[in-house]
Amino acid sequence: MIDEIITLEWKFMQETKHIDGRAKCQDDYENFEKYRQAQFRVYNQEVLESYLYDLHQYENLGRNPITEKYGYMMASSDPTYYETIKDQLPIIDEDKLEIINAICQIEVTMKEEFNQQYPILASLSRMTHSYEDEIEETSFETYLRGELLTYSSQSLYLYGKMLVEMINHQQNIVTEIMQETVKLYGYQNIDEAQEKMKEENA
User: Fold this and answer.
1) Contact indicator for 118, 178 with CB cutoff of 8 Å
2) For residue 202, what pLDDT is reported?
3) SS3 assignment, position 1
4) DSSP class of residue 128?
5) What is the pLDDT of residue 152?
6) Alpha-carbon distance 200 to 196, whole Å?
7) First CA to last CA across the chain, in angstroms?
8) What mean pLDDT do residues 15-35 have?
9) 45: which strand partners?
10) What CA–CA distance (Å, rounded) separates 139 from 30?
11) Which of 16, 38, 150, 177 has the most CB atoms within 10 Å of its CB?
12) Low-confidence winner among 9-18, 55-64, 85-94, 166-175 (lowest mean pLDDT)
């Protein structure tokens, strides 16, 4: 199922038009596949099934969730350009926005905890907060919000439920995803990755 999700996302990625021409990430399937694989390995079956259904719905409707995701992100990273495209993006109702903002607040706190525990790895990942956004540098918070804005209400509900379950088990979704990421890059675990990068930067 994860492979099918990534295949669909890559298809949408290839069809996305960047304002400055083709983006570098559109020609880097290897890293795209690893980052998305790591993220989806942490998601539970319910969320994966619902998100895959969303992607098929987008495909059937002739819409592109990747284009919409990056469009929503520009509200923070490039407000001037966003003003020229916002009318082309679906309007999100207030209830959905409230849920998304609550999820973002929780995960930003988790990202801050990750930053403190693994500062070297954190320095190689996205900045944390939307107020740090630049046109060419989008934060973790803005990226997360943009992605969640493309989720159906069902997927968003299941994602929130999954996050609550992780909190109840004292799990940090940011750390869990990074754990899967470093494994895909050949490390045994996140602690080994942090230590080896520390030695390389000494």
Assistant:
1) yes
2) 62
3) coil
4) S
5) 96
6) 6
7) 41
8) 79
9) none
10) 22
11) 150
12) 9-18
Closest by CA position to 156, among listed 67, 60, 43: 43
pLDDT band at 197 (very low <50, low <70, confident <90, very high): confident
Question: From residue 27, how far is each of 14, 23, 86, 150, 180 by CA, in Å?
Answer: 9, 8, 27, 23, 23
| Position 129 pLDDT exceeds 90 | yes
- Phi then psi for 134, rounded to 5 degrees? -130, 165
What is the greatest pairwise CA distance in the chain?
52
Amino acid at position 37, single letter: Q
CA 187-188-194 angle, to 5 degrees, is 60
3-state secondary structure of 179: helix
Which residues are CB-contacts of 129 (< 8 A; sequence separation ≥ 6)? 108, 139, 140, 141
Distance CA 15, CA 29 (A): 14
Look up residue 10 and give its two tokens: 């890559």
Q: What average pLDDT does the segment 13-24 reach?
A: 73
